Structures are given as structure tokens and as C-alpha cells.
Amino acid sequence: MAAKQKFLIGVALGGWWLLWASVQFFVMLNYGLAMRESAIDSIATAIVLALAGYVMVTMVKYYRLSPKNILYVIGASLALAALCGGTLHELMKHLADDENYLKSLNIILPLRLVLIWLTVLTGALQGWLWFHVKEQRQQELHTKEAEQLLREAELASLRQQLQPHFLFNSLNSISSLTMVQPELARKMIEQLSDFLRGTVKKDGNQLVTLQDELHHLGLYLDIEKVRFGHRLITLINAEANTGLMKLPSLLLQPLVENAIKFGLYDTIGEVTIRIEAKSDNGMLLIQITNPFDPATASPKSGTGFGLQSVRRRLALLFYRHDLLSINKNENIFTTTIKIPQGEDRTP
User: Fold this and answer.
1) 107, 175, 289, 322 from 339: Cα distances, Å
2) Most CB atoms within 10 A, among 54, 124, 163, 242?
3) How far is C-alpha 33 from the chain's CA centre?
4) Is the separation of the CB atoms in 232 and 225 below 8 Å?
5) At what angle do helices 109-180 and 210-228 cross, to 10 degrees?
6) What's the CATH code of the domain at 254?
7) 330 and 197, same domain (yes or no)
8) Selection from 268, 259, 266, 267 nearest residue 333 by Cα
9) How far apart are CA 41 and CA 316, in angstroms?
């Protein structure tokens, strides 16, 4: 792409210098100057201007215009224009044979110098503008890449903080079951292995279908049901049209873990956790409800690390801060997340 762009720029500049030489040639003929001298002068002027323009563009590439050095650039363009004009003047004195042309050579020298200087200065300004715009685009690209890397690093950090929390709980449960119920402990190890294998394969930025996310969530719930037995009841209700809707992978597990933590840790009876998914105005709407004891749950840990991590992750992926909300109604805690779909998605 860069080679093609340079080629097109070269063709454009070549066409510009050819047009300059052609216009100058016909203007000189119109003033009655000889064809040979007009052609030589036009070609020589175009070549000199091309070389002078290249020198100035190269200079502004490494010596950018600024309020501090603008006078240096103007001075350099004046010196270069004088050098080019003087060289061209002496060259044409030796190459020209027509008397009328030689007589006009001294007359047009001031005009030639001014035209060369203006052309060289214009080339310098255009070159500076080109490099300035290119530099700005590169800086914007580097900034976006840096922001993307920071986002990915933070997302990875969030995942790494969540997994050990669940893993330690599961290992503690396995350890407790090893002596009294070895078969159940073996089953839980297999379930934990299946869950972690699926977790490792998934990217935190990846969008998956709701049905895939619910399948992976089912692996997690199987482990938790081994831990809590008949006390944990989960009801999952997803509307038929939501199965193929997308959401970030591994998003629901920390939310359900949070619901289990606040629903079961301070009770001894059965607890029902409901997970409902539906389509709402082009968004995937998921609600997770669990009972909790306000007297013991709130002072201990607030809304939980799981909710904070999911809120931050949604903000990083979708650039919005209104996609997760919570509601406490008596002893029922409801977590609601909204996942933009299609054109509304901006990850």
C-alpha cells in the first residue's frame, strides 16, 4: 500500500512539473521568444524547481516548521531560490543563441527569482503539512494501540482475579469430600477440569452466543451443586429468540457466583437462584435474582467483587457505564445486565 501511494505521488508530481514546463513554454512563445530557447528554458526551469522542491521537502521532514524556526526555513528557501535562479541564469546564457532571448534574460531575472522562491516555499509548506498530517495519524494509531493493549491487560487481570477465588473454593470442597465421599470428590474433580478447560480456551474479549455461555455456566453450576447439594436450586429461563444473541464470554459465572455467595453462605435452607434472559429493544437483557439477608450480606462485602469486575469489563468492552444495575427489594437481590447487539455494539 505504501509503495502504491508513493508511486501515485510520484506520478502526480511528474504531471505537475510537465504542466509547468508546458505552460512556461507556450507563454515564452507567445512573447515572441525562439522555440529552441523556450523549450530549453522550460525544461531546465522544471528540473531546477523539482530539485529545489525536493531539497526543501527533505529539510522540513527533519526540521519541522514552528514559531521558533520559521525564519530559518524562509531564509533557507530564499537562499535556495537565489542559488537556483543564479544557476539557471548562467546556464541559459551559455546555451541560448537567440539575441532576443539573451536580451530578455536579464530583464526576467527578478521575476524568475520571485517565482522560484514562491514555488520552493509553497513546496516546503506542502511538505510540512504532509509530514505533519502523517505524524498525527501515526500518533493517533499508536494511542489507539496503547489503549487497546491497556484494555486487554485489564480484562486479563480481571479474569485472573476471578478464577483463583472460585478455584480455591472448589478445591476446599474437594478436599472435604475426599475422605467421606471419594466418588463425589472424583466427580467434582472431573467437572472442575471440564469447566477450567473451557475457561482457558476462551478469550475475555470474545463474544459468544447465549446458548454457549449457558452451557459453560451449567458446568460451573454442576460443581456448585456438588458443594451445596439440595440447598442450591437454579432456574434458567431464556426466551427462544435469545439463544443466538451475543455476549462477552464468561460473563455470567461471576454474577451467579455472587448470587450463590450472598444467597447461601448465611442460610441453612434451600435457596433458589433465577436466571432469565430476553430480548429488549435490540439488547440482550439478563436478570439474576437471589434471596439474601440484608442484616448479614450488606455490611460484609457490599455488592461483591464479581459485580464490580463485570461492571468494569462491560465498560471496557462497550464504552458504556449503564449496562449493569442492581436492585434490592426486601430480601431479593436482582442483578440486571444489558448487552448491546448488532449496530449498537461497540466493543
Assistant:
1) 77, 38, 18, 10
2) 124
3) 60
4) yes
5) 30
6) 3.30.565.10
7) yes
8) 259
9) 64
If asked whether residues 304 and 203 sit together in one domain, one would say yes
How far is Cα 264 from Cα 210, in angstroms, rounded to an integer? 26
Contacts of 156 (CB under 8 A, 6+ apart): 204
User: What's the pLDDT tens digit per position in 208-234?
Assistant: 899 989 988 888 888 888 878 888 999
Q: Count of CB atoms within 10 A of residue 304's CB?
A: 21
Task: Extract the runs of DSSP E, i.e. beta strands, from 216-282.
Answer: 232-238, 246-248, 271-280
Q: 108 is written with which cell numbers?
A: 526576467
Total tally of structural domains belonging to the chain: 2
43: number of Cβ within 10 Å: 15
- 237 contacts 265 by C-beta, under 8 angstroms: no
Q: How far apart are CA 314 and CA 336, in angstroms?
A: 12
Q: What are the tens digits of pLDDT across the range 149-199?
A: 566 666 566 555 555 666 777 787 778 778 777 887 888 788 778 777 766
Q: Give the distance, in angstroms, between the CA of residue 210 and the centroid of all CA atoms in the same chain.
A: 26
Angle at 156 between CA 152 and CA 162, to 5 degrees: 150
Ranges of residues in the chain with a pLDDT under 70 are 1-17, 20, 63-69, 145-146, 148-166, 198-205, 266, 295-305, 343-347
Does the CA dihedral 206-207-209-215 come out positive or negative? positive
Q: Do residues 21 and 136 share a domain?
A: yes
User: Is 112 exposed, middle or buried, given 0-12, 13-18 or 19+ CB atoms closer than 10 A?
Assistant: buried
Residue 246 has phi, psi (to 5 degrees) of: -100, 150
Q: Domain containing 249: what range? A: 181-344
pLDDT recorded at residue 299:
41
Within the chain, what is the greatest distance between any pair of CA atoms?
Answer: 118
* Among candidate residues 111, 142, 173, the one where a domain is terminated: 142
Residue type, 193: S
Alpha-carbon span 201 to 285, nearest angstrom = 26
User: Residue 300 is which amino acid?
Assistant: K
Query: Is 162 a member of any domain?
Result: no
* C-alpha cell read off for 84: 537556483
Alpha helices in 181-209, H assignment, sequence order: 182-201
